[in-house]
Every structure is written in structure tokens, then in C-alpha cells.
Amino acid sequence: MGLLERCKEEFGTADLYEVLGVRREASDGEIRRGYHRVSLKVHPDRVGQAGQEVATRQFQILGKVYSVLSDRERRTVYDEQGTVDEEADGLSQDRDWLAYWRLLFKKITLEDIKNFEEKYIGSEEELTDIKQAYMDFEGDMDQIMESVLCAEYTAEPRIRSIIQQAIDSGEVPSYKAFLKESKQKINARKRRAQEEAREAEKARKELGLGEGSGDLKALIQSRQKDREKEMDSFLAQMEAKYCSSSKKGKKTTDKKGKK
Predict the structure, then answer these.
(1) pTM over 0.85
(2) With the C-alpha atoms ordered 114, 119, 125, 130, is the resulting torsion angle positive or negative?
(3) What are the DSSP calls for 7-69, one per residue?
(4) What's the rounded Cα separation, in Å, for the pair 19 and 105?
(5) What one-character DSSP code corresponds to residue 174?
(6) What is the pLDDT of residues 65-117, one digit of tens each?
(7) Residue-by-residue DSSP string for 86-120
């Protein structure tokens, strides 16, 4: 069975870009990040004994997908012909894909994450990524928050503000999914993000991810509390906006009824 058939069987699609959750025009960096994000979900070291066989099989497939899309010549052939050279170097079934993964992604610490966040958040790269995600997903905030790097749920008010400014300036079109999103959907996203954060913390401990200094940990915890306050304020504004509109409409109707 070829790579495309195996992708279809294991991930429900034979499109290599869809397997990694990236667009066909994705940059090399986006493809690498997509591979990292998806492979973490099936990393053999992160699953129990019962899931080892499936996880290992899917992990190997993802390694091959990335091997194709990260190679300029192979990617061009795939884009133009929709085929993959199964005999090419790097697609061997016997390759140690765990070793390959570790070469690509060194073990990082919270210090590394902090340094990356400081450079990325507020940068031109982040602004471009947010606008592109908004366009790709036509305003669906669930998918936007999932795809943008470092986009914790507490950063949603800031990200929404960036998108709204882009809409107001005419840089991007307005989508109903963004403008008319319900408070219920926002809250559901917040609950999911909190659960994922708990799972990520558990995985961090299992993988032995370094914490760096105690001062750094305290700084991150303090910043997280500030972000949570910002998110609560945003939800309160949403509630005031929509509840207020609803009450006004009801009063108008009541007055007409009395007449």
C-alpha cells in the first residue's frame, strides 16, 4: 500500500496537506509546524501500551508525509502530478522515524517557549498568520485559535481586535461566522482550551519538559492570570452588548403591544 493510500486509511484523507492541517500554499515553516503539531498527538511516547501499535503506524506515516513536503523537488512533483515516489530516499519503512523527529525537534524548556513568544507575539509574522487564518477559515474562531501559534484562549480578545481592525481597514472581508458568533460558542471554546491546557501540563511532566527557573514559572503564572482577567472582561462586554440589545428589543415590542 502506497503512502497516499495509507494516509487515507489512517487519517481519512489522501491529501498530504490536509494530513498535516496546512494549506497547499503553506511555507516551509508552516509545514514544519503542522508536522510537529500533528505528530505530537500520536507520538508513541505519549500513548499507553494499548495504543502503541496504532500510534507508531500513524507516526511513521506522518514522518513520510513531512519528508515529501519538506523536500522541494518531491513537493513539486506531488503538487503537479499528485503522486509520490515511493522508492525515494527517506521513505524507507525501516527508517527510525523517532530519531528523525528528535533531530528536527530538540527538547525545549519554558525558557525557549518564553523567548519564542516574546519575539512572535505582536510581530509582523503573527499579524500575517492571524489574517491568513481568518481568511482560510472564513472567520471561524474555533479554527483560527487552533491554527495560530501561541494563541491561548486568553489571547482571544487581542486576536479579535487585530481581525476587527483588518476588517475595518478593508484588508480582509467580513465573515458572518466572525461577526455573529454566539456567546455559547465562545464559552465552549474556553472550556475546551482549559481542558487542553490541563492535558498539556500532564504531557509536559510525562515528557520531562524542563521548567527553567522558578522566577520564570512565576512570571508565566502571573501573566496567565492577567490574560484570564482580560478574557473575563471580554466575555462581560459580549454579554452586555447582546443582552442589552435583546432587552431593548423586548421593551419596544412590549410598548407596541400596549398601544
Answers:
(1) no
(2) positive
(3) HHHHHS---HHHHHT--TT--HHHHHHHHHHHHHHT-GGGS-GGGHHHHHHHHHHHHHHHHHH
(4) 19
(5) -
(6) 998 998 888 999 999 999 888 776 666 556 676 676 666 666 556 566 677 77
(7) TTSTT--TTS-HHHHHHHHS---BHHHHHHHHHHH
Nearest residue to 109 (alpha-carbon basis) of 228, 220, 223, 35: 220
C-alpha cell recorded at residue 254:
412590549
33/241 Cα distance (integer angstroms): 37
State whether residue 210 is helix, strand or coil. Answer: strand
Sorted by sequence, the CB contacts under 8 Å of residue 79 that are 6+ apart come out as: 24
Q: Show the cell assigned to 31.
A: 509545514
Count Cα neighbours of 232 within 13 Å in the Cβ-side half-sphere.
Answer: 6
Cβ(67)–Cβ(91) below 8 Å: yes
Query: Grid coordinates in use for 172?
Result: 480582509
Q: How far apart are CA 160 and CA 130, in angstroms?
A: 9
